[in-house]
Amino acid sequence: MMKTTLVAVAGAALITAMSVQAQEPAPKPAATAAPAGNIETGKKLWVSVGCWQCHGYEGQGGAAGPRLSARNLPFAGFSAYVRRPTNQMPPYTEKVVPNADLAHILAYVNSRPAPPQTVPALLK
Amino acid sequence: MSPKKSVDRRDFLKGAAVTGAAALVPDAIAAQAPAAAPAPAAQGPRAGAAPTPARESDPGLDPESLVLDRSGGDFMVDVLKSLNIEYVASNPGSSFRGIHESIINYGGNTMPEFITCCHEESSIAMAHAYFKVEGKPMAVLCHGTVGLQHASMAIYNAYCDRVPVYILAGNSLDATMRRPGVEWAHSVQDAAAMVRDFTKWDDNPFSLPHFAESAVRAYKIAMTPPMSPVVIVLDGGLQEDPIQPEVASRLRVPRLTTATPPQGDAGAVAEAARLLVNAQNPVIVADRLARTPAGITKLVELAEALQAPVIDQRGRMNVPSSHPLNQSENSGALIANADVILGLELTDFWGTVNVFRDSLHRSSRPRIRPGTKLISITSVDLYTKSNFQDFQRYPEVDVAMAADAEATLPALTEAVRKLVTADRKTAFQERRTRLDQAHARGREASRNEAMHAWDASPISTARMAAEIWAQIKNEDWSLVSESGNSSGWVFRLWDFQKHYQHLGDSGGAGVGYGAPAAVGGALANKKYGRISVNIQGDGDMLYAPGVLWTAAHHKIPLLTVMHNNRGYHQEVMHIQRMANRHQRGITNWHIGTMLENPNVDFAKIAQGMGVYAEGPITNPNDLGPAIQRALAVVKKGEPALVDVVTQPR
Question: What's the gap in Å between the CA of B328 and the closest CA on chain A?
Fold first, then answer.
């Protein structure tokens, strides 16, 4: 139960942080411009560097990490949080996940399909 | 001190008989036992001790003297029957062969019935969950050495979870009476010492009358909150030797009177009520609150008297999931905005109101606003041991009641009701309206979240929970598993109402609790015809999968759905954290943590134990039909398993 509470707080912080970063009006230096990402490469990296462990194979989230799929996250905010997470997530520095790889990962996450409109099994 | 008897036992054996009544009648025993002429003892007994039988020095014994009608173990069974012990779980052992034989023959293998287990950890965990369904202890028999060693983690779990398990440990104290070899390796001076740090009371009875008193006392102590496992060591001679007439004349089973749980101090209750009634944003947090089914009703009464939100930390089934005041999914915001928090049998009050960051430099910060008043009611304050640190960080509270929370609730509710004015009632009703809407929004949000990755493979835990629910929702069901590692989907999607529908977790987080606990919970549910459901972790199952055989052998109906993420996933995440911290090897998380190459085939394991099983299921569309087929087996009274390859959490 406490784990769920912590993740809920962390998840909100993550999503908020990513949104704030995206809204900052200051011009970005060329080094931090969002590189293009490849979805298939991103899928492999998503598993190999361990993102799936907390966020699920589909980015759907769970007790250990919030849902990232179907949020169309911006690279700036995504990168900022991954490099210096503010809650329980361990840091992924540029040394271990370069920006190019992070772009692939984000491409994969943002490619996850939206959920179905309704699911009969979930109807009240 | 050995309670062995003298050579006059030979005469006794020829004609002695002992009545089988729970409260023995000395005259009846005396009338049946012929007067035995005292014979010289082989050696003088110590003062107060029974004489030592000369087993070694009587090679010419009459063969008839090698048999007996009744032994001490029979009387021990009388005592267990008086305590209404329904089952005794055990992996058989020679140190308790005496009472084992008494249970199955003298006792008719009923009340208690012997449940054969393949590991003592399974025996204890079964008893642990059995209590949480049935509300009374189950007995466990084990060796006082290797059995208790095997059982120790499970005993620790029960201790942390405040659950009484009634443990009987066999031993051979008289060194001159031990068989050479194994009986020496399986003997110990102080059997309970290895588990004393996480049991509440233990004894090593010297005589049968002593056993009777200790057995009843142990039950009473185990069942007094805070509840806990207890240990009675049974000497082999006490179990196996005949009951001497002079002992028989003293045998009786003391009357059991369980202690009424302690209630909170009247002044503290009044202060708590004042704080809660005057609060703008009170929050009730419940963990191991509902000790009995009535605990749910009492909590709802208090919550409705205040129209206060309840956060269920799910150490027990505390509040129905459909009740609008159940705001467990909104706990973060509620705690952050609270001005008064009432904690009811919380495992970790400090962790409830603080955030702790597991980073290179560990840090914490309050989760609550300055000035928030904290009220704690917990029986754990009455009894805390030092060595094992399950008691968590010290919480700084404003009102601390060392009392049983469930027992205190009626007084607190009454005190609250007396203080509620018309103005407060209006405020409460407005709060209730907001909470009703929040509850409905929360349930809708959970259903929407569950749709993400609905068709994914590995199968999402939300999909798994939903598919199980679709099959059981119209049954009298009981979730007998921990379920903490599948992201709480069962709590977000199912409708929990009754006390036996959720049993909490292991207490001590000792992995390996899940599978045997599920079997133990299902054992308790069996006589009520309930459908027991277990969402089972793969790593947990592998500790002692032999419990599947126990379920098959004893025809314990149980639907097990594997949450098979092919690894010890918590440790996967821990190793990832360490690697990231070092900025090295961040792709090596699988070393020492994953259960693949080869993948474990749980369906084959289960089938090998005599359990109907299917799997591995990797296509989510196959899940519903597989669960349906397995459920049909369970409805016929047998266990069934479906292996499902799932998302990690």
Answer: 9
Query: Is A83 a member of any domain?
Result: yes
E strands of B213-351, at which residues? Answer: 230-235, 282-286, 310-312, 340-344
- Please check the confidence at residue A8 and state whether its pLDDT lies above 90: no
Structural domain count, chain A: 1
Question: Would you state the pLDDT for residue A14?
Answer: 62
CB contact under 8 A, B454 and A119: yes
Render pLDDT for B527-552 as a digit per residue (tens, 0 to 9). 999 999 999 999 999 999 999 999 99
- Which of B83, B143, B148, B154 is CA-nearest to residue B112? B83
- Is position A124 within any domain? no
Does residue A25 surpass a pLDDT of 60? no
CATH of domain B71-243: 3.40.50.970
Q: Do B589 and A50 touch (CB under 8 A)?
A: yes
Of the candidates A48, A58, A122, the beta carbon closest to that of B450 is on A122
Note whether A124 contacts B493, CB cutoff 8 Å. Answer: no
Pairing verdict, β B139-143 and B166-171:
parallel
Q: Which of B352, B452, B578 to substitute to test the interface with A, most A CBs within 10 Å?
A: B452
**In degrees to the nearest 10, what's the CA dihedral of B285, B287, B293, B298?**
-20
The pLDDT tens digits of the residues spanning B254-310 come to 999 999 999 999 999 999 999 999 999 999 999 999 999 999 999 999 999 999 999
Half-sphere exposure of A104 (CA within 13 A, CB side): 16
Please tell me the distance from the alpha carbon of residue B508 to that of residue B597, in angstroms, as a whole number.
Answer: 30
* Contact (CB<8Å) B487/A90: no
b/e burial code for range B348-363 (CB count within 10 A of at least 16 → b): bbbbbbebbbebeeee
Q: Which of A5, A57, A91 sits opposite B332 (nearest CB)?
A: A5
Q: Which whole number is the average pLDDT over B623-633?
A: 98
Q: Rounded to a whole number, what is the distance in Å from the CA of B424 to chain A's nearest CA? A: 30
Pick the CATH number of B451-564+600-644 from 3.30.70.60, 3.40.50.2300, 3.40.50.2000, 3.40.50.970: 3.40.50.970
* Contacts A10 to B, Cβ<8 Å: none
Contacts of B390 (CB under 8 A, 6+ apart): B159, B160, B347, B507, B508
pLDDT at B57: 45
Residues above pLDDT 90, as percent of chain B:
89
Task: Please list every residue in chain B whose beta carbon sits closer than 8 Å to the beta carbon of residue A121.
Answer: 466-467, 469-470, 624
Whether B649 sits inside 8 A of A64 (CB atoms) is: yes
With a cut of 90, say whether residue A120 has pLDDT above it.
Answer: no
Q: How many CB pairs under 8 A join A and B?
A: 133
Model pLDDT, residue A15: 66
**Residue B308 near residue B338, CB atoms below 8 Å:** no
CATH of B266-444, one of 3.40.50.1220, 3.30.70.600, 3.30.110.30, 2.40.10.270: 3.40.50.1220
pLDDT tens digits along B182-237: 999 999 999 999 999 999 999 999 999 999 999 999 999 999 999 999 999 999 99
**Chain A partners within 8 Å of B314 (Cβ):** 1
ipTM of model: 0.86
